[in-house]
Amino acid sequence: MYDFANSGYTTVVLTAVFSAYFVSGIAGGASWATLAWTSALAFSSIIVMLTMPLIGAYADLRAAKKQLLMISTAGCVLATAALAGAGPGQVAWAIVAVVLSNVFFSYGESLIAAFLPELARPDSMGRVSGWGWGFGYFGGMLTLGLSLAYVFWAQGQGLPASHFVPVTMLITAAVFALSSLLTFILLRERAQPQTRQQKLEQAHHFALLRGHAPPPSQVLQEPGLQASLARLHRTWHESRRFRDFSAFLLSSVAYQAGISVVVTLAAVYAAEVLRFTQMQTMMMIFLVNIAAIIGAFVWGYVQDRIGHRPALGITLGGWILMTLLAALATGPTLFWVAAVLAGLCMGSSQSAGRALAGVFSPAPRRAEFFGLWTFAVRLSSIVGPMTYGLITWITAGNHRLAIVSTGAFFVLGLLLLARVNVNRGIEAAASNGDV
Question: Residue 89: left (phi > 0), alpha (psi -120 to 50), or beta?
Answer without folding.
Answer: left
